[in-house]
Amino acid sequence: MIDPPLPAPVQGGVRPPVRPGAGRFLVLLVVFVCAACGLVYELELVALASYLIGDSVTQASVVLSVMVFAMGIGSLLAKRLRCHAAVGFALVEAALALIGGCSALVLYAAFAWLGEARHALVAFSLAIGVLIGAEIPLLMTLIQRASRRGGAGGGDEDAAGTVADLFAADYVGALVGGLAFPFLLLPWLGQLTGALLTGAVNAVAGGALVLWLFRRDMSARSRWWLLVANLTVLAVLATATALVDDFESAARRAVYGEPVRVAVRTGVQEVVLTGAEHGPVKLFLDGRLQVSGGPEDRHHRALVDPAMRRGPHARVLVLGGGDGLAAREVLRHPGVRSVTVVELDPGMVRLARSDPALSALNGSVYRDPRLKVVYADAFCWLRGPVPHHAYDVVISDLPDPGVAPSAKLYSQEFYGLAADVLADGGRLAVHAGPVTARSHAYWTVEATIRAAGFTTRAYRAPGRPDRGFVLAVAAAGGAPPAPGPGVVGVEDERPRGLPPSTLLRPRYAE
C-alpha cells in the first residue's frame, strides 16, 4: 500500500487503561487488520470491475490511481479530526466497513439493473481511498497516546520508531490481505460474501480498539453513539450476507435475461448455464456469451470445417474449447485418429461431461476414446515438451482477444509456438472475435498471425451473433484453401498497416 504523510505527534489525551507496551501492540494490531481489509477492498473492486466491464489493465489502473489520489485527500481531511482522534478513527472505520463491505454488492447491482458500473466504480474508489487515507494520521495520534508514559510525549527518536513500527504493521497487513483475497476469500466465499465479511472484521477491529482502549478519551454520550453506529453497520452487513444468495439469483436473472440453471465459480472463471435442462442452452463465461444452442452449431462448424476439409487431419489439437463443441465438429470428419484438447479450466470440462443439456449439445464427445484432455494454460503447454510437427490441424477456440487476460493467447509469440507443432502443410484455424463489432481487434489477430509466418484467409459465419475466423497455413505450405460453403470471405475489408500484437505490446484494448 502507499500511505500518505504522517502528522506531527500530538501531546494531549488521557492515559490509556493498559501499559504503554500493551497499548502500542494493540494499536499496531489494528493497523495490521485495517491494512489487510483496505487492500481486500481495492482488489475486490479491481476483480469485479474486470469481470463486469472487461479490460483488467484499464480497470486496475483506474481503481488504483483514483484510490491513491483519494488517500492524499483523506490524509489532509484527517487533520481536522486529530483533536478527537479516537472518535474520528472509530467513525472512519465504521464508514469504511460499510462502504467497502457493500461495494461489490452495489457495483454488481449497478451492472445488473442499470447496465453501467463505471460511475459506481469511480465513486467507490474515491470514497474508500479517502477513508483509507484518513486512517494513518489518526492511528499515528492514537499510537502515541497509547505508548505515552505519564503525560510526556516521546522525542524525535521515539517518533521515528513509532513511524517505522506503524509502517511495518501497515505493509505486513497489506501483504496478508493481498494473499488472502485470491487464495482464501475469493475461492471459499466469493466476491460478495468475501467483501461483506471483510467489512465486518474492519468494523469490529476499529470499534473494539476505540471503545475499550481509548474509552477514557470520550464522553459517555460519544461512547454510546459509537456503539450504536458500529452495531448498525454490523447489522447491515449481516443482513446483506444472509440475503446474498437471493441477491445473486435476482441479479443473474437481470443480467442473463432468463432463469439461470447452473452458476458455478470454478477458480478460473464464472460459468453460467441458462435454459431448460433438455432444451436450448446458453453458456456464459465471466458474463460473456460463448454458446447459444442452435446458432452455436454454425459457429463451431465455421471454425473447424475449413481447416479439416482439405489436407491431412488425422492428428488434431484444440486449444481451449472445454465445452467440447469444437472437438465434436472435429470428430465428425472421417480419418481423425486423435484429438488433444488443452483446456485451462477443469470445472468447465466437468460441466461439459455432466450437464445433460451441454453434454447433449457436444454429443457426449468426452466419451470418445480418441479424445485426450490436458489441463494447462495453452501458451505454457505449447512452450513445453511438445514434439515438433505433431499435429496436422490446430484449432484455437479461445476467449475473445478483447479480454485482457487472453491477449497473450493472440500474440505473435503464441502463433509462433503453434507453428512449431504443426506438420508441413498443416492448418491453423482461429476464432478471432466479431468482425463488425470489434473490427480493430479482429484484423489485429489476422495481422498477428501473418507476422508469425502464416498466410491467411479471413472469413466470418453469416448471421448473428457476429463471429469472425482466420484460416492460416505456414508460409512454406502455400496459400490456405478457400473456406468453403456456409461462410463469407472478408478479405476485401482488410485494413492496411496494422501492427501485430506481441507479449510486450498487446494491441487488443479497445
From TrEMBL:
Q: Which UniProt keywords apply?
A: Transferase
- State what protein this is by name: Polyamine aminopropyltransferase
Q: Which domain of life is it from?
A: Bacteria
- Which Enzyme Commission numbers does its entry carry? 2.5.1.16
